[in-house]
Amino acid sequence: MPASQPALFATGDVLLFEDAEGGIRYRPSLVDAATAARWFESLHREAGWRALQREMYERTVDVPRLIASYGLDSPQLPVPVVEALAAVRAVVDAPFDSVGLNLYRDGRDSVAPHNDTLHALAPGQPIALLSLGDVRDMVITPKPGTRGRRIRVPLEPGSLLLMSHASQSTHDHGVPKTRDAVGPRISLAFRVRLPGSDLLRGYRPAS
Ligand SMILES: O=C(O)CCC(=O)C(=O)O
Ligand SMILES: [Fe+2]
């Protein structure tokens, strides 16, 4: 499917979709390659990675990637997450309080097209996705009734993808499996939770 041509802005930001809350935008280089590599190595080694399962269509399926999650007030917060949060906060004014980390070990790991769990997210607040490690494509697909086309964005190490809360109702996003020889990739998803909500509802440790 042909990709649409996103608008390129003077800052280097690419606006992928516009809405009243900032839409979906991509900044190829939030931090430099050396910083991204340092954070990757440290998190790959030391984050609290877990294999999870979830119920889907009355079956239990393995989540095809490893996951770690922290409240941003956690005393166990890895140093790279503290530094990454500062880099994100320098360009995004949002009261992030949680981070979900994904580790895609190779091209067989993925996340299926989805929108982030609106029941758990504070209205009006964005989701900030920082990428580290090998490049993987993100595919962003308008939901039925939303204008625009499917977009494929290669997420560079050190890049930031910012998605508005509103965009979770208009678009799905996913990281498809690939047959290309790719090494591991880590993403950090900074979010603002609704008080008392559980971002990992429906997930449990793999047996
Ligand atoms: O790895 C990514 O960039 C996307 C992750 C994602 O969509 C999620 O954690 O909800
Ligand atoms: Fe997501």
UniProtKB/TrEMBL annotation:
The Fe2OG dioxygenase domain extends over 95-194
Q: Name one GO molecular function term.
A: dioxygenase activity
| Keywords attached to this entry | Dioxygenase, Oxidoreductase
Annotated protein name in UniProt? Alpha-ketoglutarate-dependent dioxygenase AlkB
Species annotation: Cognatilysobacter xinjiangensis
